[in-house]
Structure formats: C-alpha cells, structure tokens
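Every protein is a chain of amino acids, and every chain bends into a shape of its own. The fold becomes a row of whole numbers, each drawn from a learned catalogue of backbone shapes. The protein below has been through that process, and both of its lines are reproduced in full.
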Amino acid sequence: MVFIQSYCESNSSISQTWVDEGISPCFFFTLAPTILLTMCFFLGTVHCIFYQKYGTAMEPKFIPRTRLYGFQQFISVLLLVQFLSGTVWQAASAGELPGYVVLYGCFSALSWAWAIALLRVERRRVLVMDRTRGHSVVLLLFWALAFSAENLAFVSWYSPHWWWGLETKKQQVLFALWLMRYIGTGLLFFIGLKAPGLPRRPYMLLINEDERDVENSGQSLLGTNEENQSTWSDFRKKVRLLIPYIWPKGNVFLQLLVLFCLGLVGVERAINVFVPIYYKNIVNELTDGSSWHTLATTVCIYVLLKFLQGGGAGASGFVSNVRSFLWIKVQQFTDRVVQVRLFAHLHSLSLRWHLSRKTGDVLRSIDRGTSSINSLLSYIIFSIFPTIADIVISIIYFITNFNAWFGLIVFVCMTLYLTLTVIITEWRTKYRREMNQQDNNAKSKAVDSLLNFETVKYYNAENYEVGRFEDAILKYQVAEWKTQASLAFLNQTQNIIIGSGLLAGSLLCAYFVTEGKFQVGDYVLFGTYIIQLYTPLNWFGTYYRMIQKSFIDMESMFKLFEEEEEVKDEVNAGNLQYTQGKVEFENVYFSYTSGKEILQDVSFTVLPGQTVALVGPSGSGKSTIIRLLFRFYDVQGGCIRIDGQDISKVKQTSLRAHIGVVPQDTVLFNDTIQNNIRYGRISASDQEVEEAAIAADIHEKIMTFPDGYDTQVGERGLKLSGGEKQRVAIARTILKAPQLILLDEATSALDTQTERNIQASLTKVCANRTTIVVAHRLSTIIGADQILVINNGRIAERGQHEELILKGGLYADMWMKQQQAHDSDSSSDTESKDRRSEKLQPPSTSSADV
C-alpha cells in the first residue's frame, strides 16, 4: 500500500527553489506540469472551440498519407504511457511517495492526453480561412515548452537529489525515463515544424483547384504550384537522385579520392579540438614559469596545428586546401554526369513536350540546377556535417572538462540558433522561389524577343518589347528586395543569439577564474574554443541557406528529369527489318487532346517504290500522318506497318534510320554549310558531301560564296534564302540515303521558279523509293501513283489525278480553284508587263508636230 506522507520530501519545501547546487525536485516537478497542463488545457480548449465552431471537416483526399504522422502519434502516446508507468513504478517500489510525484504524473498525463486530442482535431478539421500551414501555435508552444523543461534538468547536474549519479536502481530508472522524455519531446518539436499530417497549402486553395481543375494557376516552370511547399519535401527522392553523383560508380580512383577526402574531414575535426588546448597550455606555461624547452615545444606544436587548421574566419588551412584540391576531380565528374544525363533525357522527350517548352526557362533551369548540385554536395559533406560534429564534440568536452553549465550554455545557444535558422529560412523560402520565377520570366521574355527580332521590326515594337522586359526586371527586383530583407533579419537574429551565448559563457568562466576554480588558461581555452566554434556556426546559416537555395534551384531540373517519355520502345523491341518498303495504315485513330480527334479510321497502303500524295485543307491531318509514321507520336487506335511490322513494336532508332524527311520549315544549325549537309550522315567524307550537294542542285550556288562550303549559315540558317535552305535539307536527305522519303509540303513557301528547280531535285531523291508527299500545290503531285484527299481527319477521296478530276469531287474543286488563282496571277503579271513596256516606249509624233 502506498502512503503519501507529505507533499515534498522531509528535508525540502516547495518554497525552496535551489537546493544542493540544483533546482529543488519538489519545486520543479510541481511548476513544470502545472504550466504545461494550464497552457494546454485553457489554450487547447479555446483552440478546439474555434475548430468546432468555425472549422470544417477535411475531405479525406486532401489529408496527406504519411508514416511520419503515425510516428508523431506513436511518440505522443509513448510519452503518455511513460508518465503513467513511471508514477506507478515509483508507487510500487517505495512505501512512501511524495505528493509532488503523484501530481507530476497525473498533470503530465492529462496534458499529453489533451495534446494528442488537439493533434487529432487538427488533422480532421480545418479553419477554412486559415492562410497558414502547419500546426497551430498551441501545439508548437506545448512541444517547445515540454522540450525546454527536459533541458532544464542539465542545470542540476551536480545535485544529489537528481538522477545524474546513476548509483542506485531508482536513479538509473529515472534517468532512463528522462532520456525517453528528452528524445521524445525533441522529436515532436522538430517533426511538428514540418507538420507531416497536414496539407501543405491552405485548404480553400486546395478546394478551389479541385473544383475548377486549375492546372496552370500560379505554376512554376514545369507545372506545379510550390509557393508554400517546403524545400525539404520529397527530400528522400532528391537525395536518391543525388546518390549516383555523390559516389562515382565504376571509377575506383575517384571512389578512393572520396574516401580520402572524408578522412581529411575527420582529421580537421581532431585538429579543431587540440588547437585551443595547446593555446591554453602555452598560457599556463607562461604564467607558471615553465622551462624554455617545454614552452618552445608547446608553441611549435600549436603553430603546426594552426598551419594545418588555417587562420580561421574562412581562411583555409593545409588540410582543407589538400581536400579541396583532391575534390576537383570528383566535382568535375559530378558536373559532367549531370549535364550529359539531362541533355540525353531532354532529347528523349516527345515532340509534344518540345513544342510546348519555353527555351529560356529550360536553359536557366539547367544552368542553375547543374551548378547547384556541386554546391549542395560540397556544403553537406564539408560544411554541415563537420559543423554539427564540432558542436557535439564541444558540448561533450565542456561538460567533462569544465562543468555542466558550460555545456548547457553551448547547447541552448546551438539549439536556439539552429532552430531559428531553420524556421526563418523556411519562412523566406517563398521569396527565393518567387525571385527564381521572376528571373525565369525576365530571361524567357528576352530570349523570345531576340528569337523573333524580325517580327519586332515588322511592327515597330521595339519600345513595347523593351517595356515588357523592364516590367519583368522590376518584378524581379521586388522579389529580390524581399529576399535580401529577410536575409538581413535572419543575420541579425543569429548575431543576437551568438553574442548572448558568448557573453554568458565568458562571464561565467571569468567568475570561476576569480574564485580560483579555473586557471587563466582555462578562460583562454573557453574564449578560443567558443570563437572557433562560432566561426563555422556563424556560417551555418549561410550553409543552410545555400543548401536550401540549391534544392530550390534544382527543383526545376528535377522536374525535367521527372518528365516521362511519351513515345517509348517496348522492353523486347527489335530492329525494323526493311525489305521492300511497303507502308500500311490500318484503321488509325489519333488525337492530340482528348475529345478532338485529328485522324479517324484512316486506312491506306503505299506499295514499294510508289509515291502517295496527301492533299486537303489546312488542319485536316496531313502532317499528322507524317509525324505518326516517323513515330513522333503513337496512334491511339489501329496500327501502322512497314513491311508487315508494327512500327510501335520496333526500336525508334532503327525505324528512323530508314526514313528521310524534308520538312516544310527547314531549320539549320548555326554552323557551316558542309557540316549542315553532313548531319545527314556524320561519318560522310567531304567528297560525299559535295556529291549530295550536286544531286540537290546547290553545289554551284555554294561555290559562289566567298567561303564556299565553310560558309556560316547563321542561327536557324537565316543567312540563306528559303530555296537554299530547302536544297541543303534535300542534300542532307540524299546523304542519309533513306529507303522511305517523307516530304511535308517541302515547297509550299517558295516561288514558282524555285519550286520547279527544287521539285526536280526531289524527283531525283525519290526515284525508286517509297515516298509520301504532303502537298499544298496540286500541280506538284500530278504524277503521284495515288492521291489521298484528307478532310476532317478522314480519307474523302483516293485515286490518280485524272480519276479524281473526272469524279468532280473535293479534289476537282481544289484543282479548279488553284487553276483560277494561277490564271489570275498570270494575267496580272501580263498586264503589269504591258504597263511597264508602255512607259518605256518613246511618245509618238503626229504630222502636225512635224
């Protein structure tokens, strides 16, 4: 049976705060649970009332499913059970139980039960107009106070009334219970900052987006609204993407370099411990009057350690410089692998993605993303981890060699510093992200304007473009000011914490020196060590911000990596076995967007060596047939065969190796004419390039240029005329020597004479090859073996030219209109020539004039 003889032990009173170099247990274990229960009960009750009265139940689909929330609940329940079981154990093991132990157990259990209830309320209900994210102030304050209360136990390090001695079984059990509370409350506080069980964005925004299906509202570069999303979200996925770049797989030399650099990091940590110790020894030996030999030896060792460590304040030492030098190869490997993989991935993406991309945004994302990976690895491996290790080592060292007060001062300062750094930096993330978005917008406008400079000139829109660019710059500068202002606020907060900790520790150390408990060298040791520790800690905020900035800068690049290929080869896809060149479309259906079919039940066959022409109004689906055959897209119904093989079952590279395309709009690389023609077959010799140019009837024209085949064609080939660009494209196709030719309105934008010349070149290319022609001018496809008239995604008519004319259908109507337009143009040309000849004739003279 348990008896409660008195509220406090026999030798203490609740009015006594400090007993035997520590806080009185009776006072502490009365005050702490009372404050927690009072705060949690009253504020929590108000909180619940507001949620019940003004809140609404969240729809299950908006509630995140995460194991971290389950872990959060588990810790809370575990702490509740710990308080109850601890009280029961003390009651069972002791005949007399102080009253404050019962009060502590009951009040603590009630407060944690109430906290668990609040946690469940916040997950199930939400204040509709709440614009914040994360847990309420009530829960965060409760967890923070609970964690702080457990930290106050360090103050009583030397008190015999607490459990630090671990001499008896009771002290050992109480220490184990305290350790469980300490770890549990700390985890709850830091997990609570992330709020894993709550939506990441305001609930009303989620509802509106769901109801309206707003996919492009406030999007970032590649389509996700991440304004309020934490930088550390999907951290595991990001780290998993980084692992191949951290560890150079397959390169033993670079792997040994990584291990050696990590070993040097450990050496630096050891040096940081011994530098202040030897500085202390120098001061003590000077004051104690030690021999010159002993003093000189200590000074030499100290100088050697400082040489290895560096001068501090950012100056690198010998070890750090060696590590940085050896890391260059690893850094270059990472940079190369990232850029090459991303470049290959972009080329593997579908035509649909490339048609909708913003080139300026993509280039900026690639530049920032690739550079940020190296920064991220360097900061994490060589800055963050070493700084945390220095903090842990310093706390242990001060507790063991000084006393617990110094360890507590360092611990509290580090905890406040790191916590506020994380909170403020997370808060200012949205400003950095907004600045990136505005930077992308500004650069995108500049790139688009420069690429379309001819259109700008046509409409005298120079001032308009400059104004748009200036407006984008102004928006960027507004976001930049917010970023810099929040950075200044963070720096001031960090300086206040660091200064306060340094002042408290220095005053305490100086007091112990005046009391004779410490030597002068101990004060020097503390000052040297703490300043040495605060130097990297002062940079810790910068490291954290740079890591966060790197994550933000990499988000767009990660989105590029996450873009999936629309057209993929099957797992066991084989190569196309090209034999004759027979092309079959069988009941093909296709649409770019759901609900609007471009092709409907299209079926036709092109026999080997035949030429089939596709004609019809604009938008009827002619070019889509070419793109499907080249497999820029996959059909949604039916199939396409070449020599009886379904092209969706073969490798894309083998399919495209047999197909040559001459597009309507030829785009050339900003390179020489020779290299542009050679692009058809990279391994071709100069002679083969010239033979292809001769076959395309452009060799003579090239030789008239001052630089001949070395002439630069300019960006997108703008230095060449339309006809010259088309002939280069034809020469490129001739050099490729494909068995199947696709001509997508290759001459529609050219004048009549140029069209006739190029048509002759195309006739040479297409001889004895299976050819599919998309034609705008019907006169160019009169000799086609079969003409397909496409209208509204279907084949309206098919046959040869004469047959279709005799039918008097859609093709005959198109032919008549083009003939009438041609006759009208011819008569206009004749009349204009007559008028010019009349102006050139001398005036006639009459007999009267004579």
